[in-house]
Amino acid sequence: MVQRLLEPGQIESLDHTSIPRLLLPQARSLFMARAARLRQLANNDIKGIPVAEAMQGYLQLMAAVVDAQAAVAAALPPETFSLPPAADIKLSIDHNMPPLPVNGARPPEWRTVFAALLDHLAASIKDQPQIDAVLAELRALDVAQLEGCADAVLAELTEGVHPLHAPFVAAALQVMWTKRAEQLDSPRVQPLVTNTLCPVCGSHPVASVIRIGGQSQGYRYLQCSCCASEWHMVRVKCSCCEHTSKIAYQSLETNEDKLPVEDAVEDKNAKPNKANDPSKVARAETCDDCKTYRKIFNQEHDFHVEPLADDLASLTLDVLVSEAGYARASGNPLLWFNAA
């Protein structure tokens, strides 16, 4: 096959919108991959994300929760996850609003998802009295209490929600929104006024990821904490305030001290970005304009990175970056602090 050389000016005329702006989730493969990743992390099998022994049991529990998410997503009838009327979706898209907003009224079917999730967990987790007690407490919540908990979870409020209840409520909401998001037509969904929120549901991202392969090669995406949709944001741009002037990256050294190392944004003397570098699997992108950070995971250095799972497991990085004076931009829905 003969390749045709482009004439001067033709490059500028190419369609530069071919970068996939939005990657919609596939619930089954998403939850299966996330559960497998959580178990690898719990076993300390991932170079670049060391996991303390105290965190390993929790990761195993969350892997069981994600298994339940996968099972419920596959077992419940499709009508459980019905989309809003087409006219409502069109109106939202036409006004650059999320077509499946997490604010406002929720489909009552999410409570069916929640009940099914608890049933699956009760059947799959044996001989753990503490978990049985939490599941019993969750079953005892009335509709008003459960909806209030969901309000707090979606608003990322630590007040008004029990930290042991919140991950299970969040897990049910994730199933609901992920299953609905996968039914959308991604080219129709428009960016929001701010690129820091999910264009599908309006939630904050849990972390960002540099993807490899196909048209997404080398591009950075933010992953939604609720519906798991991923949307493109240029690299070296704060995913909280969108400034670019004071971005840096903090990572964990591979030595025993595990101290943060700051990488300059534009370091012309930096070593080539070779693949499979454990120190670049998980990093914190910090911004000195808004003094926040959000983690960024790189498929170039670990093909199987999973933003939510890797974020949950890399608490050591959170501690070190927080000690350096940066606030976390948004939380992880499967881990809550501050008892109500």
TrEMBL record:
<feature type="domain" description="FdhE C-terminal">
    <location>
        <begin position="236"/>
        <end position="335"/>
    </location>
</feature>
<feature type="domain" description="FdhE central">
    <location>
        <begin position="197"/>
        <end position="235"/>
    </location>
</feature>
<dbReference type="Pfam" id="PF24860">
    <property type="entry name" value="FdhE_C"/>
</dbReference>
<dbReference type="InterPro" id="IPR056797">
    <property type="entry name" value="FdhE_central"/>
</dbReference>
<dbReference type="InterPro" id="IPR056796">
    <property type="entry name" value="FdhE_C"/>
</dbReference>
<dbReference type="GO" id="GO:0051604">
    <property type="term" value="P:protein maturation"/>
</dbReference>
<dbReference type="InterPro" id="IPR024064">
    <property type="entry name" value="FdhE-like_sf"/>
</dbReference>
<comment type="similarity">
    <text>Belongs to the FdhE family.</text>
</comment>
<dbReference type="Pfam" id="PF24859">
    <property type="entry name" value="FdhE_central"/>
</dbReference>
<dbReference type="GO" id="GO:0005829">
    <property type="term" value="C:cytosol"/>
</dbReference>
<dbReference type="Pfam" id="PF04216">
    <property type="entry name" value="FdhE_N"/>
</dbReference>
<keyword id="KW-0963">Cytoplasm</keyword>
<comment type="function">
    <text>Necessary for formate dehydrogenase activity.</text>
</comment>
<dbReference type="InterPro" id="IPR006452">
    <property type="entry name" value="Formate_DH_accessory"/>
</dbReference>
<dbReference type="GO" id="GO:0008199">
    <property type="term" value="F:ferric iron binding"/>
</dbReference>
<feature type="domain" description="FdhE N-terminal">
    <location>
        <begin position="19"/>
        <end position="192"/>
    </location>
</feature>
<protein>
    <recommendedName>
        <fullName>Protein FdhE homolog</fullName>
    </recommendedName>
</protein>
<dbReference type="InterPro" id="IPR056774">
    <property type="entry name" value="FdhE_N"/>
</dbReference>
